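Example complex used in Figure S2.
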Amino acid sequence: MSWYRPSDVGYSLRKQLADIGLGARLFVRLLLLVGPAFRRFGLIRDQIHFLGNYSLAIIAVSGLFVGFVFGLQGYYTLQRYGSSEALGLLVTLTLVRELGPVVTALLFAGRAGTSLTSEIGLMKAGEQISVMEMMAVDPVQRILAPRFWAGVIVMPLLAAVFSATGIIGGWVVGVLMIGVDAGSFWSQIQGGVDVWKDVGNGLIKSVVFGFTVTFVALLQGFEAKATPEGVSRATTRTVVMASLAVLGLDFILTAMMFSL
Amino acid sequence: MDSPSSDPLVELRDLSFGYGERVILDGVSLTVPRGKVTALMGASGSGKTTILRLIGGQNRAQKGELRLYGSDGFQDVGTLDQEQLYAARRRMGMLFQFGALFADLTVFENVAFPLREHTTLTDGMLRDIVLMKLNAVGLRGARHLMPSEISGGMARRVALARAIALDPELVMYDEPFSGLDPISVGTAARLIRQLNDSMGLTSVFVSHELEETFSIADHVIILANGKVAAQGRPQDVRQSEDPLVSQYVHARPDGPVQFHYPGPSVEQDFGGAPAPIAPPSGQWI
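Predicted assembly (545 residues):
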């Protein structure tokens, strides 16, 4: 491809547009398949187990460590202003509003997104997608839709686990190790966190990220070239694109929520 | 030549297909007679598998007509929408070259898959049907194994059981014998014949194994250079005087299908004064 040859530029532009169109069509189909997907809830349940349960360990451990670090860093800043009893509030708001959804989505892309992409890419390479089509079974409905909706359900749950373990981490460092007063640590959280504004906004973010990451992973797997190299490229693209999309969307969502 | 029945199960009329610039099929007309075993033969790249994919609606022809299931079927597979295509596919079974079993399901669940997707049978009935189909391919005892635990020949038999699970009218086999040992080739060939006759199927298979193919097929179609070179009863095709057909059925390395890939002539490459070798481009100095 050379940028100065109009035919090359046109070709690649047209290909990009076609790819975007294919992706958009798949996304709409997955949304419309919500009914059929939930009618066979067994398939979604299996995927929730696969995506959620196996991501639980990495999410919980990461949350704990992020909480530890926030306990330390937050205390360092707050004690300069003599308000170290607000440590609980600082840790909780940061996690619930921001870090919980975002870091969970990034970890989910790496842990579950890659496995979704490579699973579907390898099914394609093994002709399992074609054989399903030849059996008059729609692979989008049978394979993609249950995984998509399972990812959407699982993401907010994982983000909640992340935030919860993070708050415990902050408590361990702040209260147990540094000696911040436990009563003020918890009462500040209780008084300062709003269910709709803080928890609700975090929940909206994690649902949006659930759609994003799961869809990117499925699309990359479904469009992967059916070769070893194609599958490995698709897996890499899943992590790169999902991470960038999550960070970009996070900014947009945060800005929108601030203006409300 | 035997007269292909007046209402063939599959009929291709003047069908052309290509990938981009490359023409694979160029005005192919052929029929698959009902209730018979039809063999599609021809050199690699002659479009045999493409014909199966066209019949299954995975590819669409650029030109021509493809009638399926005769008078009560579909006039042109190339124009069907998704729903009609799935309706057509529910009446056919396809065996992929390497079986394409679902790697995360057991042998039993692989065969049960189309039944679970398309029927609402009770567990007991489903079990009976799956075991009957597995029995037909001799693998009733292997029901609990995973695809990774069985041999290539067994995998293909499981895939065959899965392809016939819904009692299709048409079964297509994509190179069912390739990569199998002689015993498995014999088994597979006998199975194709047996199932066709006992279940009242119509079978189409793509193959390179001359002996096995000529022994089980009722109808042989030979493709060459994007066209049908011969079709008819095996013995007629074998006796054909057509140089293309006779090269194929007698397995001669050279003939109308050439051994050498087109390129510069031998004289140009080896004879006369040595041609100057072009200096490598992109040198530093």
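The mean pLDDT of chain B is 84. The interface with chain A takes residues 56, 58, 82, 85-87, 89-90, 92, 94, 96, 98, 100-103, 113-114, 117-118, 159 of chain B (CB under 8 Å).
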